[in-house]
């Protein structure tokens, strides 16, 4: 077996703005595994470390990735290679996504319809922050494209302007027409969160992600208990390594939903543990991209399809970049599809 990695810098079509950051490009790392166990002899995954957000964002990340690849190369089988990996979320995601794309990751088998190009995954339309005119244009583009669930990043422009945007949407579209999700990326404070949530609830909001910065469990529990809008946790799931820690957080905070970014929350296997623990406690879930390239997104789509999701997923991010990797993924309206080989060759 031979395992290697290569760095790639993804470039956004438009500046991506959240309450936390502003990005024009995003580095990522591709993991190539050559092994006779793959039907085609090799497969490529993505170690999608997210600078400024991943718990393993340290100056020696590439050294740690290099060590993981070298140790895996010394293993006789893919199973041994997986056992050799360190508990580093993005590196595990890199290897697991290679296994998924190579057809060797153990799944439920319920993704067959998606793999065969017969079923699409319903997604939410993601609208990035910008000035009022830009956000209004982006919202209109999503609605015109056929999305029935739209997720808006908020907290980066004037709050009154955001209220006006939401009021405009609701004047034209009812709750039954459009489901609205909001993502504050930790942009509220414990002092103003409930007041803002109360005002936002006028617009029949489905849920709001991560109202305050992660790690403030007492404040987050209070907000989850008192908020008129259901709260979803996102960044709060980063950095956990044990089942006990996961249980402690879920029971301490008691959110309505958790949002799974496998490249940030331990990889696919750990994401499955999160789902199991959440469902046991009556907590809903959906999966979303952490801005991976098409390589990571394809694996994420296959895994998500195998989990039989019941609500729109956050996977429609493949068109964000000018230099994304080639892929059979395509958005048709609000659904993410994997084109069949015949369709792909025809195109």
Topology record:
Layout: E1 2-17, E2 22-34, E3 42-47, H1 61-73, H2 78-84, H3 89-101, H4 112-115, E4 121-122, E5 125-127, H5 132-144, E6 149-153, H6 159-172, E7 179-183, H7 193-200, E8 205-209, H8 217-226, E9 231-233, H9 243-253, E10 257-260, H10 268-280, E11 284-287, H11 294-306, E12 329-332, E13 335-338, H12 341-346
Briefly characterize the structure.
With 347 residues, the chain is of the alpha/beta class.
Question: What are the salient characteristics of this protein?
Answer:
36% helix, 3-stranded antiparallel sheet, 7-stranded parallel sheet, TIM Barrel, 2 domains, 13 strands, 12 helices, Enolase-like, domain 1, globular, alpha/beta, 347 residues
Q: Can you offer a commentary on this structure?
A:
- The protein has 347 residues and is an alpha/beta fold.
- It is 36% helix and 21% strand.
- The chain contains twelve helices and 13 strands.
- The chain has helices at 61-73, 78-84, 89-101, 112-115, 132-144, 159-172, 193-200, 217-226, 243-253, 268-280, 294-306, 341-346; strands spanning 2-17, 22-34, 42-47, 121-122, 125-127, 149-153, 179-183, 205-209, 231-233, 257-260, 284-287, 329-332, 335-338.
- Helix 3 (89-101) crosses helix 11 (294-306).
- It is globular and about 60 Å long.
Oligomeric state = single chain
Strand order of the largest sheet: 5-6-7-8-9-10-11
Q: Using the coordinates shown, work out and report the CATH topology of the largest domain.
A: TIM Barrel
The best one-word shape is globular
**Any idea of the CATH class of the largest domain?**
Alpha Beta
Question: How much helicity do the residues have?
Answer: 25-40%
Q: For the residues shown, what is the average pLDDT?
A: 94
Major sheet: 7 strands, parallel
Figure out the total of helices.
12
Q: Approximately how much beta-strand content do the residues carry? A: 15-25%
Number of strands: 13
CATH H level, superfamily name of the largest domain:
Enolase-like C-terminal domain
Determine the N-to-C terminus distance.
Answer: 34 Å
> H/E order of the elements?
EEEHHHHEEHEHEHEHEHEHEHEEH
The SS-based structural class is alpha/beta
């Amino acid at each position: 077996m031979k395992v290697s990695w290569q760095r790639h810098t993804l470039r956004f079509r438009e500046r991506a703005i959240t309450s936390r950051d502003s990005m024009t490009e995003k580095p990522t790392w591709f993991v190539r595994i050559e092994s006779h166990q793959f039907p085609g002899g090799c497969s490529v995954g993505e170690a999608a470390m997210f600078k400024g957000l991943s718990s393993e964002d340290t100056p020696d990340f590439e050294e740690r990735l290099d060590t993981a690849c070298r140790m895996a190369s010394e293993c006789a089988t893919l199973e041994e290679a997986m056992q050799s990996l360190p508990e580093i979320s993005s590196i595990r995601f890199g290897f697991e996504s290679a296994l998924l794309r190579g057809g060797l990751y153990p799944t439920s088998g319920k993704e067959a319809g998606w793999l065969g190009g017969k079923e699409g995954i319903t997604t939410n339309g993601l609208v990035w922050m910008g000035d009022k005119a830009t956000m209004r244009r982006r919202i209109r583009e999503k609605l015109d494209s056929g999305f029935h669930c739209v997720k808006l990043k908020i907290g980066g422009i004037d709050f009154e302007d955001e209220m006006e945007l939401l009021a405009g949407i609701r004047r034209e579209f009812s709750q039954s027409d459009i489901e609205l999700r909001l993502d504050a990326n930790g942009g509220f404070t414990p002092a103003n969160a409930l007041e803002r949530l109360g005002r936002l609830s006028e617009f029949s909001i489905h849920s709001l992600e991560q109202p305050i910065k992660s790690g403030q469990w007492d404040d987050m529990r209070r907000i989850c208990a008192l908020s008129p809008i259901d709260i979803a946790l996102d960044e709060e799931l980063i950095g956990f390594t044990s089942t006990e820690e996961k249980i402690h957080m879920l029971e301490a905070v008691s959110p309505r939903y958790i949002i799974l970014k496998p490249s940030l929350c331990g990889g696919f296997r750990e994401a499955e543990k999160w789902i199991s623990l959440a469902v046991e406690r009556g907590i809903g879930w959906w999966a979303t991209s952490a801005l991976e390239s098409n390589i990571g997104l394809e694996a994420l789509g296959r895994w998500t399809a195998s989990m039989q999701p019941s609500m729109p997923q956050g996977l429609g991010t493949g068109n964000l970049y000018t230099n994304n990797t080639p892929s059979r993924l395509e958005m048709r309206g609000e659904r993410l599809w994997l084109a069949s080989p015949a369709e792909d060759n025809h195109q």
